[in-house]
Structures are given as C-alpha cells and as structure tokens.
Amino acid sequence: MRIFAAKTSIRNFSMQQKIIILDFGSQTTQLIGRRVRELNTFCEILPYNKFPHDDPSVIGVILSGSPYSVYDPEAFKVDLSQIRGRLPILGICYGAQYMSYTNGGNVEPAGSREYGRANLAYIEKENPLLNDFVPNSQVWMSHGDTITALPQGWRAIASTEDVTYAAYAADSEPIWGVQFHPEVFHSVQGTQLLKNFVVGICGSRQDWSPASFVETTVQELREQVGNDRVILGLSGGVDSSVCAVLLNRAIGDRLTCIFVDHGMLRKNEFRDVMHDYECLGLNVIGVDASEKFLGDLAGVTDPEQKRKIIGRDFVEVFNAEAKKITDAKWLAQGTIYPDRIESLNITGKVIKSHHNVGGLPKEMHLSLCEPLQWLFKDEVRRVGRQLGMPEHLITRHPFPGPGLAVRILGDITREKVRILQDADDIYINALRNYKVRLKGEEARKVLSAGYPKDSFVSESGAQDEGEIEVSLYDQIWQAGTVLLSTVRSVGVMGDERTYEHPVALRAVTSTDAMTADWAHLPYDFMAQVSSDIINKVKGVNRVCYDISSKPPSTIEWE
Ligand code: XMP
After folding, report:
1. What is the secondary structure of 65-107 as a DSSP string?
2. Which sequence positions are flagged as catalytic?
C-alpha cells in the first residue's frame, strides 16, 4: 500500500555524536550498527559512497565487509582522502582489505577459505584497539581473500595461526583494520574491540540511551507538530504501539489513533489490544469492519486476490475514519531503521515494501511523521519499556497486516477463523508459559534482541556469564498456526471416525524476517501442544510442524 503524503524528516541530530558505518554490502552491516548502539552511541549506516562530509557530529568511521573482492573490477570503491587523518577509521574484513590494498598493500585469494572460529595467537597489548584483550581471544573469520602484505608504515597488531594480519594499525594516522568480524557473537571480545574503537579511540560520550531518545524525541515532536493534530494507524504491533505512546507523551490527545478489526485478528485480540491502548491513555478509534472484510472475501481462494481485497478494504475503512478528522496535518507511522536501510540498499533493489498503513487521499495533504525511523527493533522495545508500556505489548511477535487470512488455505469463513483462532491461542499461550534457562551465547542473543533484562536468575549478577530464564515465546521471532483447510484426513476420537483439517505450527528465529530458520522446539512441548489442540479445538484432528527455512520458504504460507 502507498502512502500519499509529503515526507518530512522530524529528527535533528546535529548535537548528537555519531559513528558513520559505510556499507559495502555485507550481510552483517546492520549488526555492526546494532553493536555500536549497544555501546550507547548513535550511528548511521550509509551507502559506501555517501559519507556526510559536512556533518560535524561524526566522531569516527567504520567500513563494513562486502560480497566483493577488493580486486574485482566491479568492487565498490570510495575516496577516503577527505576523512583520513581527520577521523579515526576502522575497516572490517573487506573494509580492512580495501584500505590495505589501495595504499600499496597486497590482497590475494586465501589458500583455503578462512572461515569460522580462530584464536588470536599474537596481540599487541598496548594498542588501544586491543585494550583488555586476553591471550587466545576467539574471533570469527569469514573471508575468501587475505592480506599478504601491508602498506609501508602499517603493522600487524594481532595474528592467528593462519592469518598474519588478523588486525593491523597504521603507524602515523588513526587507521585500523580487522579481517575478522567483531560484530558477530562468536568473536568473544568483539564488543570490547568495538568499545575500544568507539569509546577509547573516537571518544564517544555514550549518551545515546532509551531515556535520552525519549527526552529529545518528545521535545522535537512538540516543536515539529506544534498545535497540529496527528493520525496514526495502529496495528497492535510493537512499532506502531510504541510510536503512539511516544506521540501521546509529546502531544497528548491531539494524537488520534485508528485500529481496524478486519475480523482475522488473533482470538480476542481486538478487545485486549483496545483495552491495553485505553489503559495507556491513548485516544483510539476502534473500527469493527469484520462484516465488510469477511463478506468481500467470501468464496475467494487465490492468495493474491485475498491480499488485494484486504488491502483495498483496509484503505477504504481507514480513509473513511481519517477523513472525519478534518483538522489533521500529520500521518504518523511506526517505520523503523531497518525499513529505511533496506530502502537505501546499495544494490538499489527494493527488498521489502511497506504494507502497514493505508493510503490516504491526496487532498488531505498530510505530512509524514516517523519518530522511530532511527531505531532498531531491540531499541524500539527498550524505548517502549522506558515509556512504561506493558511487557506483553513490547515483546509481541510480528503479525501480518492481513492477519489470519494468510494462514487459512483456500476460502475464508467465520468458522475457519474461529478454528484457527482457537488453535493459535493454545499454541501462543503454551509458548509463553514454557520457560527455558539460557546462558552464554544463547543468553546474549536473547538479551541483545531487547528482551527483558529483569529475567536474570544469576547469583553472580554478571551479565555475560549470567543465566537467564525466558519463555520459548521470547526466544523466537514469530510463531503462528496455519489451517490447512483444503486438506482433510482421517482420524479416530473415542469410537468415532473423524475426517477433519490439519493445523501446521510455524515458529521461526530471525533478526529481520528477511531470512529465517525454523525454531527447534522441544519435543515435550510439541507433544503437549498437539494433544491440546486436537482435544480442544473442534474441527482439527492432526497437527504438523513446519520445518522450512526462509529462503526458500516464506514465513507466512500465503
Ligand atoms: P514472509 O511471509 O514474506 O513474511 O516471509 C515476512 C514478514 O512479514 C510479515 N508479513 C506481512 N506483514 N503485511 C504485513 O504487515 C503483510 O501483508 C505481510 N505479509 C507478511 C510476516 O508475518 C513476517 O513477519
């Protein structure tokens, strides 16, 4: 769906220190950004050739990895002459090789691919980049090329058994390079290295925090929006909800939210979410349009056709409500940073289009307001917590705009929606109630995705070594049930033969929904859920588990 609105940027970070990450197309560029943000330092990811030369708030530069080799004719090239000597630069993988190669060093295909865990056998302890590094520190390598000679005046500051120039430094200017990936979890002191660069070398004040974000954003929203009225389409999801609460904090009742029930939400979701919003003091118009949507969908089986009808109806219903708010000047949206990075994608390909907000009539002349546009998902959750929102709203899994419609194969009826809502409710509640204890890498992964920090059960209280208790729900990106209503199979219940539909359970782990793995749920959990669904949900006599990853399968079935 398109938004017919003028785009107006709302933030002004002129006083905010920032690190610039130049993106050469690596899969882990966003991860570098998240790690820097975890150091309470603001950063922006920009295409490799879009350095903001006139921005005085930049305190350091990181060059990312790349799918290319530095000597490929089509490899991305950048002129660093205006940055060098002025700002500290850290090259990661391709970034390190690029700086070495373009300054008289040598880069060649590695004898064998240098991939996986390695240990730093030599470390120049007094180098500020390696401050507090321990002997044999584990790092993660992932490169097909390797530096075989450094430019004159540059030297190795760390090596592994196979990689002589695992990390280097230039003697007379603030340039560093690492051929390993400090941003990935398997580089055990990776965060330390980034901290050494961002804080120790670049001098970050580490003042980027959810609290400071809320304070400055509320202030800026007040200045930008003035006495105008703002409309926001709520979906019940974390992004639009946090956006609403933030705006509410800034302009109170001059924010009007619209929440449309298309009849294919989760069980009791409309009622529960409306209740939550009311408790949060939001000014929400709830529109029950389920008759219209389900009526228009009757008998339609083609997945694309179903999506189109829902999209069209949504725009109609949303617009009809929005038009009633005649003095509105702004349309707020819960767009977050990864959505924008995708649209800045250096390959120019649009990977994912927005499908959360309905198009508004041009004549309304609304300006777009996107206060979360600089945040990663985990930061949105932290901001939500800072705003005092309830945990169950903050940690909600993503849910598709067309709702259960894309999880019911074939045509949609109220009865099929009822069956799926009941099965889904059992599954989601079971995921929430099943607790697991995690430590080490697994624990760090969950914590860095923005899940509750108060779930620590460690005696030691040490964050990195501590054990945490989380629900299965919090460990996975997204879960749901799919009603295979075009399929029937035979079963037996008591003495009766049944001939009913199967339900497929889906649960995936992911960081951005662009790729996903099926979650390895415990067998005892699956056994209980299967038995509960078959015994309690009339119309279902079989439960399957979807073990497909994305790609090639998508998360939703339709
Ligand atoms: P797929 O199925 O493409 O889904 O792997 C990726 C992510 O997007 C969600 N999704 C949607 N969200 N409107 C939405 O707001 C939609 O039409 C839609 N289709 C898929 C999906 O749930 C997953 O998080």
Report:
1. --SS-TTSTTS-----TTTTTTS-EEEETHHHHHHHHTTT-EE
2. 93, 181, 183
Q: Atom 10 of ligand 1 has which residue's CA nearest to it? A: 400
- Kindly report, residue by residue over 317-369, the tens digit of the pLDDT: 999 999 999 899 999 999 998 887 765 556 554 433 444 444 555 666 789 99
Q: Whose CA is nearest to atom 19 of ligand 1?
A: 400
pLDDT in tens, 424-473: 999 999 999 999 988 877 777 777 666 654 444 443 434 445 788 889 99
Q: To the nearest whole percent, how much of the chain has pLDDT over 70? A: 90
Q: What values do phi and psi take at 293, rounded to 5?
A: -65, -50
The answer, yes or no, to whether any atom of ligand 1 lies below 6 A from the CB of 402, is yes
Residue 431 Cα to ligand 1 midpoint, Å, equals 20
Ligand 1 neighbourhood includes 478 CB (under 6 angstroms): yes
Query: Please, which residues have CB within 8 angstroms of residue 504's CB and are 6 or more apart in sequence?
Result: 481, 482, 484, 543, 544, 545, 546, 557
| Centre of ligand 1 from the C-alpha of residue 349, in Å | 18
Cα of 514 vs centre of ligand 1, distance in Å, is 10
Dihedral of CA atoms 108, 113, 117, 122 in degrees, nearest 10, equals -30
Q: Which two three-digit tokens encode residue 280?
A: 């949060």
pTM to 2 decimal places: 0.84
Q: How many CA atoms lie within 13 A of 355 on its CB side?
A: 14
- Per-residue confidence (pLDDT) for residue 443, from 0 to 100: 78
